[in-house]
Amino acid sequence: MRARTLSLLLHLLAAAASSFTPSASTDTIYRNTTLTGNQTLVSAGGIYALGFFSPAGADGRTYLGIWYASIPGPTTVVWVANRRDPVANAPAALQLSAGGRLVILDGNNDTVWSTAAPTVGNVTAAQLLDSGNLVLSADGGGQSVAWQSFDYPTDTLLPGMKLGVDIRAGITRNITAWRSPSDPSPGDVTFKLVIGGLPQFFLLRGATRVYTSGPWNGEILTGVPYLKAQAFTFEVVYSPDETYYSYFIREPSLLSRLVVDGAATQLKRFSLNNGAWNSFWYYPTDQCDYYAKCGPFGFCDTDRSPPCSCLPGFVPRSPDQWGRREWSGGCVRSTSLSCDGGDGFWVVNRMKLPQATDATVYAGMTLDQCRQACLGNCSCGAYAAANNSGGIGVGCVIWTVDLLDMRQYPIVVQDVYIRLAQSEIDALKAAATGDHQHLHKSKLIVVIVATISAVLFLLAAAGCCFFWTKKKKASKKGEGEDMTSLPPSTADFALPYRVRSQPSLSPVRDHKQLLDASEETRYATDKDVDLPLFELEVILAATDNFAGRKRIGAGGFGPVYMGVLEDGQQVAVKRLSQGSTQGVSEFMNEVRLIAKLQHRNLVRLLGCCIENDERMLVYEYMHNQSLDTFIFDEGKRRLLRWQKRFEIILGIARGLQYLHEDSRFRIIHRDLKASNVLLDRNMVPKISDFGIARMFGGDQTTAYTRKVVGTYGYMAPEYAMDGQISIKSDVFSFGVLVLEIITGRRNRGSYEPDLDVNLLGYAWMLWREGRSMELLDEALGGSFHHSRALRCIQLALLCVEAQPRNRPLMSSVVTMLASDNAVLPEPSEPGVNPGIMSASSDTESSRTRSATANYVTVTRLEARSTTSTGHSSL
Ligand SMILES: *[C@@H]1O[C@H](CO)[C@@H](O)[C@H](O)[C@H]1NC(C)=O
Ligand SMILES: *[C@@H]1O[C@H](CO)[C@@H](O)[C@H](O)[C@H]1NC(C)=O
Ligand SMILES: *[C@@H]1O[C@H](CO)[C@@H](O)[C@H](O)[C@H]1NC(C)=O
Ligand SMILES: *[C@@H]1O[C@H](CO)[C@@H](O)[C@H](O)[C@H]1NC(C)=O
Ligand SMILES: *[C@@H]1O[C@H](CO)[C@@H](O)[C@H](O)[C@H]1NC(C)=O
Ligand SMILES: *[C@@H]1O[C@H](CO)[C@@H](O)[C@H](O)[C@H]1NC(C)=O
Ligand SMILES: *[C@@H]1O[C@H](CO)[C@@H](O)[C@H](O)[C@H]1NC(C)=O
Fold it and tell me: Which GO biological process categories is it annotated with (predicted)?
């Protein structure tokens, strides 16, 4: 009886709910439902919402759109149905017609917009999916899709959307900016695929080409050569049926979108980060990204001044214009082609391929065959490999048109073979060899040096070390003046000291073993890895067989023990955990890098030990452990008065400056944080843990990594989100560290109870309100130097600015710290640390930390690309 009443009640409720309006939160409308007013469809996982909205300033014109359900209000609209056909008289209503069309009606029940009549199936439902796709299909889903919003992008490419053409379906998908923020109708700026020759994407303003991705060579888009995806994967599919670009997000909680920005005329990727949309990735980025900047047969290189040059064998068309920095006229041949078999080719490398929409592609032809094809056609000016899938280089492309939009990169992208008259080639060859005889010589020297160092390294990696620095010399260097030079050459190493001349392992096996697990093997042939070798017995004796009580913490790849050598010297021994492959690569990295560095503010490596399965690094012992054990400890942080904290900040800044600018190598630490700053007997700070540091060569300033490692809370946003590594990502971590030292609070996990902000946000809020002094650790007890403390806060805020280019170099930081008179710029809002993955990161952690370090250091590995379509970095 009671049961029947209940079921009747439920029945009535259900009927009431389904009458003409969608119930609370549904993702589907049927033929019997109408969506109107503020009602929305919300995708099953609560990610996207669909409904009517009216942009501010649109005079009440109403549009049907899709936005993020988690962001209050339709503020970030990613799709608009009726961008050209707004509803002028409310209320607007959305229905699924009996004929299976989605229609928007205005207040007079007139149809203002509708989808085409379906050609397939019996459309009975329109469903909003968690991908942000609105799909018309037969009830029950899974059936054939009659229509989908993904086929009609507006200004935003969401993950999984395709940008390009579907030849079978006759659909062209591009993204076009809104006319203005109050008007979603199509504006001037579009990003689209152009087919013909090799696929290539263009950013256009009207009919004018502003930027191009460069041709797809089967492996990468040659204008976007850096592999920097860590949270993203990409594909370009190029087949007779369809050609498109698409991207995917590996971290499901990360919201990200690719948008055409009409005002800036840029293609931008935005990622949501602590409630704010950030864009660190945009094109065009630099002057060489602008389309055909250097004209026909010219090429652009940001590292040259002026940036434009003519290809070898070419001269400016108008030297006058060229001299006035007007490069669009481009270049012409110095000697015309003979075209009777008297021509040859000159290779230019590291190139973005010339525009290839009008080039001729030969799939399956080898490079040699292509050369012949080019020689056989008088109008052919160049050829290159295309379809590089897997580096095999099947297929090629020839240009019988002007070579446009080339640029040279500092990294390997692609070779282009330029056709020149034989006399030009002879001249170029003579210039390369004749004039530069010494080049030849130095090449030989390089080869010899490389060979020697490879051999040395082989032995060094296996035995790790043969020599011992003269002890006196070593101790002299440890303290006292800053050492900006390298360790002495091997000739300076003498006195064997607790060293065996031959390691107990076979050198080759061990070397290979180490390198196999090492991710960045390209650094493996570095010179001067001459580290003293300790015998295992010595280490065992020093640490009482790794007694538990000797354990003092954990480093990046294993536990750390305190030890005392025979002569009474105290050391810290970092022992690689057994079976950790990650650890082996970090171990090698640390050996390679730190062995070359000496500075008062860097921890010093005394030697290593590789025996049987043991791998250990031996450091000078740091009596006061790590900085975090002081600044985050209620009792101990009272011991750190202002002057001491200031000296620590200055010391860390100097150590970092040495890494970035003063050593012969440019080194990015990548994991600077309180637990990686050690304090010696005199509280002098020493940066430690180089397990994931990166060394940059020559002029390289930025790199991209597919593997983001580091510690959330300290990671610069552009690094965490886009994998961009530069010295400026370390500067960000430094800024966080300074704030932590001053406040005695952690950036992560120190949320202001009443304000939903972390330390950076809190510091910024107080700064804007002129209350910065409230930030200072009360444990300082008023010991601080008022104006200097304020300067430290200002400096820290400058270091954590969102845009890397606005952050100061460490040399400026040191100057600003050391001088009370230097004028500091006004900081702007800090970049937010990635808050994503905060909950799940613990499970991903693979760099384990000591108990004192509550921070989680995270490693995220990019999965390998699954298809032959490969990666690009759009
Ligand atoms: C509306 O249609 C759907 C599917 O066709 C059906 O499940 C639902 O019961 C209908 N609602 C009403 C009130 O007719
Ligand atoms: C619905 O939208 C109107 C404006 O169109 C607004 O005034 C009203 O507050 C909204 N109602 C709800 C429940 O959000
Ligand atoms: C529009 O159609 C609905 C339902 O079919 C009806 O209730 C309403 O009166 C109509 N409005 C106008 C202006 O015709
Ligand atoms: C389409 O589906 C509706 C509801 O399921 C049904 O009433 C109608 O007969 C179907 N029409 C055809 C042509 O299958
Ligand atoms: C973008 O695509 C739409 C739909 O196919 C098309 O109408 C429009 O002309 C395209 N825009 C450009 C600039 O190619
Ligand atoms: C790339 O090479 C593969 C293997 O030879 C071939 O099947 C494919 O058609 C080529 N694609 C293009 C675009 O040349
Ligand atoms: C040279 O190549 C172009 C482009 O493929 C072609 O149109 C032209 O016919 C070729 N000329 C000769 C002589 O083969």
Answer: immune response; recognition of pollen; response to other organism; signal transduction
- What's the farthest any 2 CA atoms get from each other in the chain? 106
- Helix, strand, coil content of the chain in percent (nearest 5): 25, 30, 45
Residue 520 has pLDDT above 50, yes or no: no
- Residue nearest atom 6 of ligand 2, based on CA coordinates: 38
Q: Is residue 810 a contact partner of residue 727, using CB atoms and an 8 Å limit? A: yes
Q: What's the confidence (pLDDT) of residue 478?
A: 31
CB-based contacts of 442, cutoff 8 Å, min separation 6: none
Cis amide leading into 153 (omega within 30): no
**pTM beyond 0.85:** no
Structure tokens at 511: 């070397």
Q: Which burial class, exposed, middle or buried, applies to 724 when counting CB atoms under 10 A from its CB (0-12, 13-18, 19+)?
A: buried
- Residue type for position 716: A
Task: Tell me which of 122, 124, 136, 137 to substitute to probe ligand 4's pocket, judged by most ligand atoms within 8 Å of the beta carbon.
Answer: 122
The more confidently predicted of residues 479 and 828 is: 828
What confidence score (pLDDT) does residue 272 get? 83
Catalytic, out of 671, 680, 722, 730: 671
CA distance 122 to 114: 17
Alpha-carbon distance 590 to 603, whole Å? 11
Phi-psi map region of 389: left, alpha, beta (phi>0 left; psi -120 to 50 alpha)? beta
Q: What is the end-to-end Cα distance of the chain in Å, rounded?
A: 64
pLDDT 10s digits, 18-45: 334 444 579 999 998 999 988 999 999 9
Residue 653: pLDDT band (50, 70, 90) is very high
Other beta carbons within 10 angstroms of residue 131's beta carbon come to: 18
Q: Ligand 5, closest atom to CA 192?
A: 14
Nearest to 637 by CA among 627, 648, 647: 627
Ligand nearest to the CA of 20: 1
Pick the atom of ligand 1 nearest to 33's CA.
1
Q: What is the DSSP letter of 116?
A: P
- Which element (helix H / strand E) includes 282? strand 276-283
Question: Parallel, antiparallel, or unpaired for β 406-408 and 298-300?
Answer: parallel
User: Which ligand is nearest to the Cα of residue 175, counting in written order?
Assistant: 5
Residue 552 to residue 621: CA distance in whole angstroms: 11
Distance of CA 667 to the CA centre of its chain: 17
CA 536 to chain centre: 41
Tell me which of 857 and 810 has the higher pLDDT: 810
pLDDT at 246: 94
State the residue for tokens 């070593």: 474
Does the Cβ of 38 fall within 6 Å of ligand 2? yes
C-alpha span between 494 and 93 (Å, rounded): 87
Mark whether 671 is an active-site residue: yes
| % of the chain exceeding 90 in pLDDT | 38
> For residue 212, which phi and psi values (nearest 5 degrees)?
-135, 145
- Give 310-348 as a DSSP string: EPTTEEES-HHHHHTT--TT-EEESS----SS-EEEEEE
Which range, 200-214, 518-532, 575-589, 591-605, has the best average confidence (pLDDT)?
Answer: 200-214
Angle of the 422-433 helix axis to the 437-463 helix axis, nearest 10: 60
| Rounded Cα distance, 717 and 732, in Å | 9
CB 32 near ligand 1, within 6 Å: yes
From atom 7 of ligand 5, which residue's Cα is the shortest distance away? 172
Length of the chain: 874
377 lines ligand 7 (CB under 6 A): yes
* CA Rg value for the chain: 32
Closest ligand 3 atom, residue 107 Cα:
13
